[in-house]
Predict the structure.
Amino acid sequence: MAFTIANFSPVGAISRQGKAPAIFSYGTLDTHATVDGSGYFNAAVAYGGVYNMLEKGDIINVVVYTTAIGSGGSVSTYGTHVVKDKASGTVDVTNVTVGLMTDSD
């Protein structure tokens, strides 16, 4: 698959003050290996907003679903990617830091 802007959202107040990183949330059927590929977020250039929203150091929390995205799907895994580089229309994020998922009930 490819980046889907409808599944991408800023978390909380998105204004930039100082040099604090912004936090974003993203849901996808793609694996984290696909998401962390250089240029995955390049599609954002076509939408004229997401590329311009992201800066080096920003945090993207990604939830990977197995079937449908959102309340109709099952969660496969989640993790955090950090915007490592951004230049000339190309966004590159780090490999995922995988979150631990447990359900003890």
